[in-house]
Design goal:
Layout (H helix, E strand, L loop, with lengths): L1 H34 L1 E7 L6 H8 L2 H4 L2 E7 L3 H10 L4 E5 H9 L4 E6 L1 E2 L3 E4 L1 H7 L4 H12 L4 E4 L5 H13 L8 E4 L2 H10 L4 E4 L3 H8 L4 E4 L1 H4 L6 E6 L2 H4 L1 H20 L1 H13 L5 H8 L5 E2 L7 H13 L9 H4 L3 H8 L2
Helix pairs in contact: 2-13, 2-14, 4-5, 6-7, 13-14, 13-18, 14-15
């Protein structure tokens, strides 16, 4: 009789264990499902995308239940093509390509800014000598006369922010024609190489290239600062497919909250943030100390506030339309969706 009770108790114990294991499995599956909100993210591995690198490096995205499937692109046009094919949900790219995407009928919304006044025109060699202490228009003319050729300026492809603000500065601010200089479009890595090798006379480019060139060449010169090229120039942004706002609103809300948190971290603790940015874009290429220096330079004004860049985006839109970059008119107010940023900053 005792053996019968023992067997029955053993059976009951086994059933209890099975039920517990089943519950554990169910809870684990539920937790995994909650944690498996995947977002396909396209990005350019450059310093203005630092918010992405900080949130990932700090592990905040995983904590928030987001799994970012990241794809690197050398430049904005590649991201626009991927958006058109439907392979991306979220993009970190320039406001220039965002305008181009909308003009091509790609339905996206800009949810947050990354940085403003991110571009500077840095020059070397004979152009630097001609530019120091001289008005830029006169310096370009003096260089052309002395060298028997136009200054060669490298930048990102046409339609990008660095290219657009360079052309706008030449035409609207200096009163020159685009062909008064030779503009050479290429990927960000190639711009840096061309400038450091002396293959070009200058570059309209981003950090950390500006800081790197000034660090390596004491005779290099910033011919035009970000605000001089275009006041409050909009730069890199966080954008998403419009359909995603309805498909995965909670995930997008978390992403914008983390983007805003990462912006605060970049401004509050650039030394800590520099390690994440270094790991993502500069590891083995430049010292982490130089990345930190670039994060606090005059060309790294990090702001997540999309309201801040609307008017300047309209000015950029108008200029891109004027020079034929945009295929059709773009309603800038429709391009932006402020609700996620406003919710992230107000808690409502």
């Amino acid at each position: 009789m005792p053996s019968v009770h023992f067997q029955r108790g053993s059976f009951m114990l086994k059933c209890g264990i099975v039920r517990c294991l089943g519950l554990v499995f169910l809870f684990s599956a539920f937790a995994t499902a909650r944690a498996a909100t995947e977002l396909n993210v396209g990005y350019i591995p450059i310093l203005p995308m630092s918010q992405l690198f900080v949130m990932e490096g700090e592990g905040w995205t995983k904590e928030a239940g987001l799994e970012l499937k990241k794809t690197r692109f050398a430049e904005g046009p590649g991201i626009v093509q991927a958006l058109a094919s439907g392979t991306l949900d979220v993009v970190y790219f320039g406001i220039g390509p965002a305008l181009v995407a909308r003009s091509n009928g790609i339905d996206i919304r800009v949810l947050a800014s990354n940085v403003v006044e991110q571009v500077a025109l840095v020059v070397r060699g004979d152009l630097a000598s001609a530019a120091k202490g001289v008005e830029p228009k006169k310096a370009i003319a003096a260089f052309t006369t002395a060298q028997g050729r136009k200054p060669k300026i490298a930048t990102l492809p046409k339609g990008s922010v660095p290219d657009t603000v360079l052309r706008r500065w030449l035409i609207k601010t200096l009163g020159l024609a685009e062909n008064d200089v030779e503009i050479v479009g290429m990927g960000a890595d190639r711009v840096q190489q061309a400038l450091l090798s002396g293959a070009v006379d200058g570059a309209s480019i981003l950090e950390p290239t500006v800081t790197l060139v000034l660090d390596k060449d004491p005779n290099a010169y910033v011919m035009a600062y970000g605000a001089e090229l275009m006041p409050n120039q909009p730069g890199a942004v966080l954008a998403v497919r419009t359909a995603l706002l309805k498909e995965k609103p909670d995930a997008i809300r978390k992403l914008v909250e983390l983007h805003n948190r990462a912006t605060e971290e970049l401004n509050k603790d650039p030394k800590r943030a520099a390690q994440h940015v270094y790991d993502a874009v500069a590891k083995g290429l430049i010292p982490v100390a130089l990345v930190e220096k670039a994060l606090i330079s005059p060309y790294s004004k990090f702001t997540a506030n999309p309201h801040q860049i609307v008017q300047a985006t309209k000015e950029m839109r108008d200029f891109q339309t004027e020079i034929g970059v945009l295929r059709s008119a773009v309603d800038v107010d429709e391009l932006f969706d402020m609700t996620f940023y406003d919710s992230a900053t107000t808690g409502k």
